[in-house]
Amino acid sequence: MIAGIPSLPQHQLERLRVGYEREVVRRRRRVLAVLGTLFVLVLAASRCGEVDIANLLHHLSGLTSYFGRIIPTLRMTHFSADIADWYWNFSGWLKLLFDTVLTAYLATLIGTLGAGLLASVAAANLAPNAIVRWCVKRLFEFCRTVPDLVFALLFVSAFGLGPLAGVLAIGIHSFGTLGKLFIEVIENIDMKPIDGVRSAGGSFATAVRFGALPQVLPILASYSLLRFEINVRASSIIGFVGAGGIGQDLFVAIRKFYYSDVSAILLMIIVAVSIIDLATERVRHRLAPIETLA
Amino acid sequence: MTAPPAILPFDAATVLERHRELLTNSSRRRAAGWGGLTGVLLLAMFSVWWLDISIRQILPGLGELAKFVGLMIPPSTGGHLPLFVRSMLETLAIAFLGTLIAACLAAPLSLIAAANTTPSLLLRFAVRRALDTIRGIDTLIWALVFVGVVGLGPFAGILAIAVSDTGSLGKLFSEAIESTQSRQRETVIASGGGAALAIRFGLMPQVLPVIASQILYFFESNTRSATIIGIVGAGGIGLQLSEQIRTYNFDQVALIVLLILVTVAAIDWISGMLRSAMIGRNQATSRI
Asked: Nearest Cβ partner of A158 from B61, B141, B246?
């Protein structure tokens, strides 16, 4: 038995088909327009960016041999000797890596304290003063848009070579990024606990302490830890401009083509960063369930 | 007349006594709080000592810094405005091409790294670890490496951004692919389509808006990172900036920083508009 499939009359079908085809053509045209624009932009950008495929192909073997060369020779027969040879400066690098982590720590602390103070002054619901709020927001914006490496270059000129310049540069950058997040967090709190404290006769300070702080503290701490992870990466390269940490040795190793040193230092950085990521991630999960915020 | 209902006598002391446990923090929590605070402070003091940071270094430095800031006002082009603008355009070109190449490289890799498109555990694992490693190395390090390979200039910067973002975009794309529904792909397979058709008609329509918005977001953030890779010689405005800082031309430094701020704000604005045009207003604010 053939089930009757309901079919529309011919003239209605025709109308639908024409409409469908028109829609398809419209979408195709739009895709083509986007692709065309993209193509023109790519051409313009390649001119501007001095893209040279021939140059790349010419040096491509150089690239692969570069990665071939930075892999150390480890032979099973003298394994420990080869490892010792590869990590000839292990204690020196470890100390620099420790410097790097402490730089990130101090910078995160500076950024968190500064951002916490200014954000609570500027948040619209705690201290509604539009002018202060606007000024603080612009300050945060400035601090996070200027790259930390630029601050580092300036501070190296002002404070001299060494980790102080790195701490301040990364600290200021964290101050900017954390400040923006902190203001958002503080402005999104539930105002009922604060009203509760106020109506029970509490002062402004006690309202902030018992009404606002318990709500925001876990989230702020969580953001700071996330920033610490990012800062460890940042402080590992801040040495490129002379602002302390392991970046200095990495810079020298890459510039002077000390191949096995490059891989040794990179591996140490990657391992340290992964360990710190894992550790802080566990703490963050216990503090507050934010995941995708960066 | 009946007597008014008895009201419990209000006495602050007895109420406090009755709910003492609720009203006071447990001593353990309190100890943890103070202990944590002390730990943070001690570690900070230790870091200051270990990194050899002293007040004798800070005070003169602040004086120097104030002098620099004084020299920055008013900003001046120093007659190099065309050069600065060209470098800024170069920076934009680096960010644009770098992001585009990264997206093209990341798309096929993410298909391999996603669990629902690649059944082979081994292949998936290998690609994921490779992406992680690439991502673990900073863009600036890649830039330094590529300067060694293709020479000084913006091309090294493009390659550096392309490679380092392949890692991040590959991970994000594969997460987007994994969060799609399998029904659409199953429908394509069931009506006789192959694996390629299933990806084209069952997967792409679901992930394309997410991926496009991620690419835009990366373009924004790459505009920022492209401003600094010039410091290691990989082209763009960073080269001019570090030159002017090293030669103490602070009025020109201020101008370049302003130029960067304006450009970054403009790019943020444009890509924000494109993003909201693509995925609708309400989702535009939640990035990634």
From this structure: B61
